[in-house]
Amino acid sequence: MSNVVALRLIAATSPNTENRKVMPKRRPNAEVRSREYLTPDEVERLIEQARKLGRYGHRDATLLTLAYRHGLRVSELIALRWDMIDLKQGLVHVNRLKNGIPSVHPLRGPEIRALRKLSAAYGGSPYAADR
Predict the structure, then answer these.
(1) Res. 130 pLDDT band, cuts 50 70 90
(2) Strand order in the sheet with 91-94
């Protein structure tokens, strides 16, 4: 079989390219929304809604507060353990992922109070976000 015949055979048996559906290209984020971040008011509303919803509202609100105030990724947030939180000195030890540098962050009053309340409920577990 010659190359020309083989090419004609392939072209005849391949699906019609005119009838194929082409997936639309994803629009850039700038076209969809004007910004890529939440304002402080929006974050506070999100935390308040998390506090009101579900069985573990206080836990969820506390985790959102920590994530927002300390810039934690989800993987860093769920890896938090009670031994990384020093409530007496008001510090949290953060092990950064993605080649980040581990650091110690100060905790402020509302965070310390929320973590103490959480500690009373989940104190027996090594993970702050357990259950």
Answers:
(1) very low
(2) 85-86, 91-94, 103-106
Q: Which domains does the chain possess?
A: 35-122 (1.10.443.10)
Mean pLDDT in residue range 68-79: 92
What value, to the nearest 5°, has the Cα angle with vertex 29 and ends 24 and 30?
A: 120
Q: Comparing C-alpha atoms, which of 40, 39, 56, 57 is closest to residue 48?
A: 57
DSSP characters over 76-100: HHHT-BGGGEETTTTEEEE---TTP
